[in-house]
Design brief:
By secondary structure, the chain is of the alpha+beta class. The protein has one domain: Alpha-Beta Plaits (2-Layer Sandwich). It is built from 3 helices and 5 strands. Strands 1, 2, 3, 4 and 5 form a 5-stranded antiparallel β-sheet that branches. The longest helix is centred in the middle third of the chain and has 18 residues. The termini are far apart.
Length: 126
């Protein structure tokens, strides 16, 4: 009887300590660098066993540069590495003309494989 009581007690403590995700979590992400900002766009250069698409990566930098010149802005971003095969994310936070950049960059990059766009991710890590 005492054993059954101990088992129930341990089960109850374990159940109460479970952390369930909340439905309305904030879009404020804290990445591994300690930044706490609203992540508006995450562009992931992924690999499926053979490294990232380097051509796409170089082209994406040109897309950013061209957008900045055409719109007279200077979009700020961080590059967050996360994989063993060179995978990384470009993290864009909420800023001027970001919505226009999202549409522009998606269209410019649609011909490339292994590039994923994530709008409003919880954070910018993997």
């Amino acid at each position: 009887m005492k054993l059954l009581g101990n088992i129930l007690f341990i089960g109850l403590i374990s159940f109460m300590s479970c952390n369930t995700p909340k439905k309305n979590q904030s879009k404020m992400g804290i990445n591994r660098y300690g930044d706490k900002q609203t992540v508006r766009l995450k562009v992931s250069f992924i690999s499926i066993g053979q490294g990232i698409n380097h051509e796409a990566s170089k082209y994406f930098l040109k897309v950013i540069e061209t957008f900045n010149k055409e719109n007279k802005v200077n979009l700020q971003y961080k590059i967050v590495p996360w994989g063993r095969e060179g995978e990384y994310n470009y993290c864009f936070y909420e800023q001027e003309k970001i919505k226009e950049f999202i549409n522009y960059s998606k269209k410019a990059m649609e011909q490339y494989e292994n590039v994923e766009f994530h709008e409003n991710p919880l954070n910018c890590d993997k």
